[in-house]
Amino acid sequence: MNKRALGRQGLHVSAIGLGCMGMSDFYGTASEDEAIATIHRAIDSGVDFIDTADVYGPFTNEQLVGRALRGRRDEVVLATKFGNVRTADGQWHGLDGRPEYVRKACDASLQRLGVDRIDLYYQHRVDRKVPIEETVGAMADLVRAGKVRFLGLSEASAATIRRAHATHPIAALQTEYSLWTRDPEAEILPTVRELGIGFVAYSPLGRGFLTGRFRAEADFAAGDLRPTMPRFQGENRARNLEIVDRLRAIAADKKATPGQLALAWLLSRGADVVPLVGTTKRAHLEENVAAAGITLGADDLARLDAAAPVGAAAGARYGERSMAAVDG
């Protein structure tokens, strides 16, 4: 697995990262034993970029990742996030970017993960009630205290990124990016490239939709929240399946799966783009990792642009409440 630089401060990670959210939350029940085995298989395969957040579970995903990394902590770049406020019963209580909350959240994450340092610490969502300079200033204090190595933002606007980076260097921006979510290409990617900030693409497979495995509501497990999202519903789903079918045809010509093709496309977007693949099973992980070996030529990229142009996906990527939390 090749390495890629995130930012200009010296952070290097595997070209594909592992997102652990679905191992504990949102996509139905997962096997903890298989989840830990998947993390171990990822590390053995050269995937050293492991991503979690305090809100996943809530809280239990950090604990799971911590258990998986016992004895292997030094083999990975460990990322987690703060800022979404959620209680143990799963209730959501908005956003918090106050300095005192930053410090409290970091200490809690360190304890749950069972580590003394977080490699990459993100503000999960921007709290527009608190000046970003205050939030990032508190995050910078964590760097000076040795609790955090590098700072990141998630779903931040270009203007917020600039203000944050002026306060303390930002190593990475994490934002949704895939063949059916190409919004970052307009303003976000040019901004982070100008500033020398790496780009971590979450949901690179469109929350699994681009794999072609989910064609009807019955294909989702009990408790999976994806059928409640606009792109997975009714007429939107039917129109989005047309995109998947076009990808399937191109993937067949490349002797790849649609999911591998979608990941190979993201890897082709630049050496500063790192797809963060979420999976709960070793077999799916191995399929995803193999995408790093696929080379796309100019003709392939032109076909993909035609199959999934900017704005092709039908429906919003989140429901109204979650979209309101996206900065800008």
- Measured as a percent range, the helix fraction is 25-40%
Helical stretch count?
A: 11
Give the end-to-end Cα distance, rounded to a whole number of Å: 35 Å
Number of strands: 12
Dominant shape? globular
Structural class: alpha/beta
Unreliable sequence segments: none
Radius of gyration: 19 Å
> Which strand-content bin applies to the residues?
15-25%
Q: What do the pLDDT scores average to?
A: 97
In what order do the strands lie side by side in the largest sheet? Answer: 3-4-5-8-9-10-11-12
Q: Major β-sheet, in short?
A: 8 strands, parallel, barrel
Instruction: Sketch the topology as an H/E string, one letter per element.
Output: EEEHEHEEEHEHEHEHEHHEHHH
* Oligomeric state, counting identical vs distinct chains: single chain
Describe this structure in words.
The chain contains eleven helices and twelve strands. The chain has helices at 32-44, 60-68, 99-113, 132-144, 158-167, 188-195, 234-253, 258-267, 282-289, 298-307, 320-324; strands at residues 3-6, 11-14, 17-19, 49-51, 77-82, 84-86, 92-95, 118-123, 148-154, 172-176, 198-202, 273-278. The strands form three sheets. It has an eight-stranded parallel barrel with strand order 3-4-5-8-9-10-11-12, surrounded by five helices. The chain has a two-stranded antiparallel sheet with strand order 1-2. A two-stranded antiparallel ribbon has the order 6-7. Strand 3, helix 1 (32-44) and strand 4 form a beta-alpha-beta unit. Helix 1 packs across helix 2. The longest helix has 20 residues, at 234-253. The chain is globular.
